[in-house]
Amino acid sequence: MAYLVDSDRLIVTDGGGTDAVDWSIAKNYKIINTLKLGPGVDHGVYNPVEQILYVEMVAAPDARPMCAQHY
């Protein structure tokens, strides 16, 4: 999970249920955007200088490489 101070948003990586990254409003946890990444989503690290979220994916043997851009 990463907290974006300037926008009061949370970024949550969820590999257990949705295999996605969710952007939420921190005040009420309402999800405002979801980026579906597929099986294997693990943890994420946010770089506040470049405003990029890096997400580790533990891919299944038959998984295809994926690339996600922040928005």
Number of helical regions: 0
Q: Biggest sheet, strands in spatial order?
A: 1-2-3-4
Identify low-pLDDT runs. Answer: 67-71
Category by helix and strand content: mainly beta
Write down the overall mean pLDDT.
79
How do the helices and strands follow one another from N- to C-terminus?
Answer: EEEEEE
Supply Rg. 12 Å
Query: How many DSSP-defined strands?
Result: 6
Strand fraction equals over 45%
Instruction: Assign a percent range to the helix content.
Output: under 10%
Taking the sheet with the most strands, its summary is:
4 strands, antiparallel
Which geometry do the CA atoms define?
globular
Gist?
0% of the residues lie in helices and 48% in strands. The protein has strands at 2-4, 9-14, 20-25, 31-36, 41-47, 52-57. Strand 3 (20-25) and strand 4 (31-36) form a beta hairpin.
Highlighted features:
single chain; 71 residues; mainly beta; 6 strands; globular; disordered C terminus
